[in-house]
């Protein structure tokens, strides 16, 4: 019996000390931390825009004829002065040759009449022949013009958008045959609400950038022009922005783009924190949990009372209570105790 009593006493002793042992081995609670920084928040807005060409032209022949050369391919780039299309030149060359012969004949007729005496040729005949020579010269110029404009050349470095007609088509004067985009500068059009447009117009210190779906890079934009009247729907202004073509990224007209406009905010004299970092203590005062490191990843938290005012978006402005550079718990501070030991949250794998 004494042995049984001894065993029972040992078991009871182990059970009495078990909670203390488990408590000692309890892991530190992980907390996500952020660093308090001085608040001068930028006012940022995002708009959805569309890429447009610097200029788009529909080229047409100024004379009628049959297209016999049409080497351009849709979607390719061509340099200024390259051949776009050409009509059959035979009829134009014949017309020029005929006009030149008629001019030469008119010159001979006038020269012959001027050599004759006044009894043989009247002044009226001489005047009529001089007029015929003038008309012949005009005919030569018209024939030269027609021959020159029977060939279409690229007026600038361009992107071939569409071919409006097929090769060997007989086209009339003024009928578009090809559409070209001038992509020497990327233009972006965006509709900006009236109230935001007026705010940007009154600020000289603002930045505008573009982000394309295929890249996370921000490209700076410059203001080029804007419509001086609002649209009929939505009271917005159409704003055109410009940028140099980026290397390694092909951007075509019609592509979507996100335009980000940012106006620097004034120095607020406080610290910006997310709303989740602020909690209300038992006395009804706003507070944060500040982290004091003990080791590289471990430390403890202390409650600091703060004064806050609303700020833009999901932030609040802390006007007193903490200093810039202080590490505070990003969320869930109300669940922690003043002086509680914690560790940095370094990811779900740790």
From TrEMBL:
Keywords from the UniProt entry: Coiled coil, Plasmid, Signal
GO CC terms, sorted: efflux pump complex
Domain of life: Bacteria
Signal peptide (residue range): 1-24
A Gene Ontology molecular function term of the record: efflux transmembrane transporter activity
Record's keyword annotation contains Coiled coil: yes
Residue ranges that the Swiss-Prot or TrEMBL entry lists as coiled coil: 89-123
Keyword hit for Repeat: no
UniProt family annotation: Belongs to the membrane fusion protein (MFP) (TC 8.A.1) family.
NCBIfam families (alphabetical): RND_mfp
Name the record gives this protein: Efflux RND transporter periplasmic adaptor subunit
Lineage of producing organism: Bacteria, Pseudomonadati, Pseudomonadota, Alphaproteobacteria, Rhodobacterales
